[in-house]
Please model this.
Amino acid sequence: MRSREFDRDFRDQAGRTRMWGIALLSLAALLWAWCAVLLLTPYEVAEEPDDQYPAECESRLLTDRGTANEGLIRGDDCANERDWPEATAVLGLSLPVSVAGVALFTIGTVTRRMSSHGQAMRELDELADRRKS
Model:
């Protein structure tokens, strides 16, 4: 009976580890989505705090004009609003989060499956021992 309780606790711990992995992968997905929003959506820039007509800017990644990279040279306000370092920082932050999430998810899944395999092997051994006797 003690081994069953230990095995149940072992599987519960593996399940918690797996859930932490899923949580970290979800956080990484949110960071990727935020990076996509920063790079792919158009935005507006107000030149003054109460600007009635803010400047409309194209997305940073899909622009035909040079506002994404050359806006500062021409004095365009769009280039100052969404910088490349912010998007790459969000993407860079998602990398260790996703690696840790994948590692925890994998460890939890493999641990749980190995525990199930061990339990199945013990049950098969018990059946074989009963047939012999």
Notes: The chain has a mean pLDDT of 83. Helices lie at 2-40, 67-74, 78-81, 84-132. The chain has four helices and two strands. The two ends are 22 Å apart (CA to CA).
